[in-house]
Amino acid sequence: MNAYVNPVSGIEVLSPVSRSNSKLEAFLRSTSFDRPTLVLDIDQVRRQYRGLKAGLGRADIHYAVKANPAREVVEALIAEGSHFDAASRGEIELCLSLGAAPETISFGNTVKRASDIAFAHMAGIDLFAADADQELDKIAEHAPGAQVYIRLLVGATGADWPLSRKFGCAPEEAVRLMDYAVSLGLRPVGLSFHVGSQTRRAEMWAETLDQVALVWDRARAAGHALHLLNIGGGFPAFYGEEIEHPTLYAGRVMDMVEARFEGAERVMAEPGRGMVAEAGMIAAEVLLVSRKQQDDLHRWVYLDIGKFSGLAETMEEAIRYQFTTDRDDEEMAPCILAGPSCDSADVLYEKRPVQLPVGLKAGDRFLIRNCGAYTSSYSSVGFNGFPPLDVVVI
Ligand SMILES: *Cc1c(COP(=O)(O)O)cnc(C)c1O
To answer: Would you put residue 365 in left (φ > 0), alpha (ψ -120 to 50) or beta?
Structure first.
């Protein structure tokens, strides 16, 4: 692997050069598209699975399907031996229809439709997440006797795309929910959490794991024979800032897990972004370059793709994609980057403008790197008449 030790941080990282994908680049250079298109290198997904698995060791990988639900991705991951985390009937059906065994699918959404729970139960899925009484009621009714794990709300961790307070119960509630699950005839088997998406450094997990381990020990002391720890996602992708090699990163996280969780016979990890982001590149086009006034400092660059057609993660400029044009050897200057739709929210980067070639023109090819995660799945069906993001798998 093309890794080196950063002399400042002392961390072994992948050099940015090793993160360029010549297969994708060659394909994109020789192909023209009539609409924004995500091109996915399926071999890169396989490499990433193997890299993560090598570090995660005995943990099962449950790929978070929402990151990229392309059937080729799911098929390739089934062949690699991956398990899956699904959030809805649709994702479960996708995995089952491509041959995933029901025992390898967890239903990890804590906000499930009752009829989806019933469907999952009928299909043979036996592992459900919950973080509230009413969710346990639904599971007990529609999947009687199922295994459940309680999702914990964990404190802010410094992730680039934090998951806020939407999911998980307060740590103090976990044991009570497990008691309640038992009273409903369910089997509380473990805990889950999500450290926050795009957690760039493995050491950022330590505090969260400490919080979760306290609850783990408390629940076991209260008589719950927990054996399942679901460490969720958070594995980072390369967006320009150095990150560790996936195997090293995953290995460090697992070392921290092993040091903290006694009796965790089964460990699950749910990478989404970390599995697929670097396998994808979007071919887009510049539709317009303009200035509001002749002497404005910044140009506005409008693309044929925006927040509603795949680039939703630019919300609050959280995820900063990297771009390639055919003029990257020219002089660069700061630009405000925007999408094509007639919605003023469809501005991608304005607070922190992006450096783009001064010669950039309408009609130029515009490549967006490492965007295989949370792009095609976030694309609207056709807001303003713009087609949803097309996906081509090579
Ligand atoms: C979205 C999600 C993931 C994937 O998170 P990433 O940060 O993309 O790896 C994992 N687990 C659950 C429950 C999720 O909702």
So the answer is: beta
Q: Do the beta carbons of residue 301 and residue 285 sit within 8 Å?
A: no
pTM of the full predicted structure?
Answer: 0.94
Q: Point out the ligand 1 atom lying closest to the alpha carbon of residue 271.
A: 9
18 neighbors 2 (Cβ within 8 angstroms): yes
- Which ligand 1 atom is the nearest neighbour of the CA of 67? 8
Residue-wise burial string across 239-274, b where 16 or more C-beta atoms lie within 10 A, e elsewhere: beebbbbbbbbbbbbbebbeebbeebeebbbbbbbb
20-60: per-residue pLDDT in tens? 788 999 999 999 999 999 999 999 999 999 999 999 999 99
Rounded Cα distance between 220 and 216, Å, is 6
Map out the domains of the chain with their CATH numbers. Answer: 42-271 (3.20.20.10), 278-393 (2.40.37.10)
Cα of 202 to ligand 1 centre, how many Å?
16
Q: Which of 85, 110, 128, 378, when mutated, tests ligand 1's pocket best, judged by the most ligand atoms within 8 Å of its CB? A: 85
Q: What is the pLDDT of residues 335-369, one digit of tens each?
A: 999 999 999 999 999 999 999 999 999 999 999 99
CA separation, residue 309 to residues 273, 305, 355, 375, 389 (Å)? 18, 6, 22, 8, 6
Element (H, E) at 286: strand 280-290
Specify the pairing of strand 299-303 against strand 127-130.
unpaired
